[in-house]
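Researcher: Predict the fold of SnoaL-like domain-containing protein.
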Amino acid sequence: MKHSKIIQTLLLFVLIALPSSTAIAQNAEVEKIHQLYINTIKSANLNNLDALYTQDASIRNSDGSMVSGLDNIKAQYKDVFSSGKYSITLKTMDEAVLDKEYIFVSGSYVYTKMDEPKMVLKGEFVNTLKKVMGDWKIYKSYRYSENTNNASVVDGLYKAFAVGDVPSVLGAMDAGIVWNEAEGNAYADGNPYIGPDAVLNGVFARVIGDHEYFTLEDIKLHEMSNNKVLATLRYNAKNKATGKAYNAEVAHLWTLRDGKIIAFQQYVDTKKLADAEKK
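Model: Structure tokens for SnoaL-like domain-containing protein follow.
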């Protein structure tokens, strides 16, 4: 059979059919990488990343953020591993040889946080493997999440907030989101905030401007009926004008539709916030 060329307009890759013995060997290499990746997630072993990724690798995360370079990739995984224990399963859907130095691999994944079984993220991945000094490594990785539960959406928002990724935080919101701060909170003066821009300018910008630091801690997510997620957490913060620090118990009630947040209601110990604001 003659080798055939198929032009894939979306990916602009030329796929070349190879003899079955070569394909079998390459399938084994792909599965070897997948198994190493699974073990890395399970063991939280950062040292494995040197064998998994090229020095100039890049990752498009499922939230749309990009990470480039092995050092930055390691930093991202370090942050993930510090937040808990995880497991992942991978299923290969398609493999195609681009040339002798590249393999295109697509598949699906199921990502689970071990201490929060309901925190499950499903999706698909598209990887380009590159041969480096005789070893196959991940050169480009693209991840696309399938929002199988609402808690995963909220979890992604909190993780983006923690690293200052405001575009991803706003991207999780529906264009018509209705946001309400707790009654008695100084930021409740604009209730309800309608739309991501109103939340950004009326809440986030003011919170950042009013505090030396403002972090969310001990976040626990509870999947509820009617497309709602209850988050219990604490605010650890310090008011810039008064120099007073506070640690307040908080609850956030999120409402979602089609993977987007359409409503938010805050519940917080507003006395602690008010006391911190008094000079």
